[in-house]
Specification:
It contains one helix and eight strands, in the order αββββββββ. The chain is mainly beta. The chain has a domain of about 90 residues: Immunoglobulin-like (Sandwich).
Amino acid sequence: MSFKAVNWTPNELLAEAKTDQMADNADYLFSNTPRAIYTLPGGLRRVQGVKIASGRVLIAKDPKSDSAHATVRFGNFFTANCDPIITTGIVSEGQAKIFCVINGIGQLQPDNTGFQVGVNIAAESKKKDNIAHSFYIAWQAMGY
């Protein structure tokens, strides 16, 4: 089954083939639409209007520091007063012992405006305690 556009012209009589295709389209959309549940402590739970955004942030090589920060802004993607749930992953070749923390922009909790990523390298020796190679922080955010 696949989705096929159905067009009607003014005063066109109902045809079985078109109405069948409309029913098939509705079934296709139901079967292929992603489903998500957004839940926060306090009982907030949404299953409709849930949005997912993702991306990655480059953390540039910096041999003089073991820490870095980057800001991710969502623009107008999420609804005002939404506190998206954010997960991260580290994509690195050659750099190890990376710790990543997220916070809101100027506050503890990320909100609909975006978030900040903070990273720290925890090398075993002071000589290796720096950002020796560039790496990425991959992220996903779910909200409404």
